[in-house]
Amino acid sequence: MEKKIRISITFFxxxxxxxxxxxxxxxxxxxxxxxxxxxxLGVPHTEVYFITLNGKFVKFDKIVENGExxxxxxxxxxxxxxxxxxxxxxxxxxxxxxxxxxxxxxxxLRMLGIYADFGIIEDEKIIxxxxxxxxIILTKDRMMLKNSEVKYGYIVRSDEPKQQLIEVSRRYKLKxxxxxxxxxxxxxxxxxxxxxxxxLDKIPEKVxxxxxxxxxxxxxxxxxxxxxxxxxxxxxxxxxxKYV
Length: 244
Prior knowledge:
Layout: E1 7-11, H1 15-19, E2 23-26, H2 34-40, E3 50-53, E4 56-58, E5 69-73, E6 96-98, H3 103-111, E7 116-118, H4 123-133, E8 136-139, H5 142-145, E9 153-155, H6 161-171, E10 191-194, H7 205-210, E11 214-217, E12 223-225, H8 228-243
Parallel strand pairs: 1-5, 6-7, 6-8, 8-9
Antiparallel strand pairs: 1-2, 3-4, 3-5, 10-11, 11-12
Helix pairs in contact: 3-6
Pfam family, one: Mut7-C
InterPro entries: Mopterin_synth/thiamin_S_b, Mut7-C_RNAse_dom, Ub_Mut7C
Protein name: Twitching motility protein PilT
């Protein structure tokens, strides 16, 4: 009769949101890696920055052994030897692709000028596009981020779009990249200034009388101008800045 293997895993920081407990004991199968064990507990590999065992760094492919105690850490500013950084930090301006359940968050990100691809339904196609275009996957589907082909991804904890925006902005320091009203809220295209004389047949008479500055989406050609909705969004953005 084979002796059972028992290990313990302690999660830190934001990983406790996903594991639902800080320290967990479990009985893995034979030849199970620490990556297998962590993801079995509901924490995708994309959320793990580094792991230690008895004070030493280990990689995802470490085969677990009876009695071991692992510490698992989220994204951190600590200086870790490069070979033990399990999920690399995203370099440059963050660009996202969101699953179909995060439409409200996608619109808010676009309003702030952040690249936010949205509308693909199938997980496989989201993963493929993220890989090909080096995008960060935002989702509430843990199984998607457990796919070994996913390099960058984050499980959005909140269910309310405004709180989701604050959460993601803090996670990726988006305040440094805010550039409001430079993307189309509908399609993610870039907004370009356009002369009023070129769009007179596309805007209401009242708008012609009240406004002189306009933008047009480079993708869907939707036209934008200032107004009460613009003022309302400005107030919203100023409020968000206070929290991030």
